[in-house]
Design brief:
3% strand, 71% helix, mainly alpha, 4 strands, disordered N terminus
Length: 278
C-alpha cells in the first residue's frame, strides 16, 4: 500500500502572502503620499550628491541655509495651522533657545554629547560656537517626531518616549553623514562611523527635554496634528540616506531608507485618521 506523503510548502511559498501584503501596503503608502512631498524627497536625496561634492566650495553655506529653510518650511506652516500663531511661535522660539543652549554647553564643555566641534560648512556661528543655522535644522526634527508620537497610545510620558526614540533613530542616520560631510566632528572619533556612544546619550537627554517642551507649549497636542508636521523629518530622512549611501555608510543608509518608509506610512495613517474625524 502506498502512503501519501505530506508535502510542506517551501520557504518562498510560505513567505509569498506576507511579501504580497507588504508590497501592497508600500504601494498604497506611496500612492497616498502627496506628489510634491515625494518630489521634494527625491530632490533632496539627489541633493546629497551635490552637498558631498561641493561642501568645501566657497559659498556652500548659502546652499545649506536655503536647503535647510526649505526643509523647515512645511512643518513650520503645519505647526502654525495646528497650534495657532501664538502657540506655534512660542513653541518655535522655545525650541530654538533650547537648541542654542544645549549645543553651546555641548561644544564648550563636552556635556552631554562628548567632545565635538562644528565645521565651517554650516556658516557663521553665534559667538563663534554654534551655527546660526542650528534651530532651523533641529526644530523640524522635533516637530516631526512629536507628530508621530501624537498618534501613539498612552499619555504624556509615552509620547515623550516615542518621540525621543524616533529622534535617536534619526540621528543614527544623520550624525555619521554630517561627520562625513565635515559639518561637525568628534576629535576622539567613535565606534559608530566616527560617532561616539556619548553622542547618543546626549540625544537621549536633549530629545526628552525637546519633546516634553513642545508638548507642554503645545498644550499636549490633544488632537491629531496635520500630517504636514512630519514632512521636514521625511525630507531629512531622504537627504541623509543619500549622504550615507554616497559615503558607503551601510547601516545609516539602510536605517534611513527604513525610517523614510516608516515616516511615510505614519503620515498616511495620520492623514486617514484626521479625515475620519473630519
Amino acid at each position: 500500500m502506498c502512503r501519501s506523503r505530506k508535502t510542506t510548502k517551501s520557504l518562498y511559498q510560505r513567505d509569498a502572502p506576507a511579501l504580497r501584503y507588504h508590497t501592497r501596503v508600500l504601494k498604497q503608502t506611496f500612492r497616498a503620499t502627496p506628489k510634491p512631498l515625494l518630489l521634494a524627497s527625491a530632490g533632496f536625496f539627489c541633493a546629497a550628491f551635490v552637498a558631498a561634492g561641493f561642501s568645501d566650495f566657497p559659498g556652500a553655506e548659502v546652499g545649506s541655509y536655503v536647503s535647510t529653510f526649505l526643509i523647515a518650511l512645511p512643518p513650520g506652516i503645519a505647526l502654525f495651522r495646528y497650534l495657532g500663531a501664538r502657540q506655534a511661535l512660542l513653541a518655535l522660539v522655545s525650541l530654538s533657545l533650547f537648541a542654542y543652549a544645549i549645543e553651546t554647553i555641548g561644544v564648550t564643555t563636552g556635556v552631554p554629547y562628548g567632545e565635538f566641534r562644528y565645521g565651517e560648512a554650516l556658516g557663521p556661528k553665534v559667538f563663534g560656537v554654534v551655527p546660526y543655522l542650528l534651530p532651523i535644522s533641529y526644530v523640524p526634527l522635533v516637530i516631526g517626531a512629536v507628530g508621530v508620537a501624537a498618534t501613539a497610545a498612552g499619555g504624556f510620558v509615552a509620547r515623550v518616549c516615542v518621540a525621543t526614540a524616533l529622534l535617536l533613530l534619526t540621528d543614527g542616520v544623520l550624525d555619521p553623514g554630517a561627520v562625513a560631510l565635515g559639518f561637525w566632528d568628534y576629535p576622539g572619533g567613535g565606534i559608530y562611523y566616527g560617532v561616539p556612544a556619548s553622542n547618543y546619550f546626549g540625544w537621549l537627554i536633549s530629545g526628552v527635554i525637546a519633546a516634553a517642551l513642545l508638548l507642554v507649549v503645545g498644550r499636549g497636542w490633544r488632537s491629531l496634528p496635520p500630517p504636514g508636521v512630519l514632512d521636514g523629518l521625511v525630507i531629512s530622512a531622504a537627504f541623509w540616506s543619500g549622504v550615507a549611501g554616497l559615503f558607503g555608510l551601510v547601516v545609516p543608509a539602510l536605517l534611513g531608507v527604513v525610517l523614510f518608509v516608516y515616516l511615510l506610512r505614519c503620515r498616511t495613517l495620520l492623514a486617514g485618521s484626521r479625515s475620519g474625524i473630519d
